[in-house]
Amino acid sequence: MTDHNHQFWSRLDDINSGMLGVTSDPRLVPMSHYADRKAGVLWFITAKGTDLANSVAQGAQPAIHVVSDGGQGLYARIHGQLSLSDNAAKLDELWNAVASSWFEDGRQDPDVQLLRLDLTEAEVWATGGKVSFLYQIAKSKITGDKPDMGDHYSLTF
Asked: Measured between alpha carbons, how far is residue 130 from residues 31, 74, 75, 97 in Å?
């Protein structure tokens, strides 16, 4: 039997980005996420004044993060509460070369803003990845059976 919670977090750890937005605005934007399994949180580094930062400036808002990665075999719609965070220690922990390329003064840039997505639920499709997909399609052509595309489940955090 598959431990769906473990499967979700393990595969999410190997995916770098997804599309993030607040549910009151249909526009999602590409964002790199940093998963904190123990806390049930996804962290994002953005700039002050972005639409996302402005949308949660007055407090947490319902949000969605969508990931799609055929190589890792994970497709998920993740819901939670998005808020601003001034957690300097967490920002120091997450800071990396990718984040620094977006900010002229690096980690000390006054425009750096940390976002926190406290997860509430996720709908997940977990497949075997690209090789498994090709195998399942070929097998279905030979046997006439429908391909087994993996697990589909929901998680509550």
From this structure: 23, 11, 13, 29
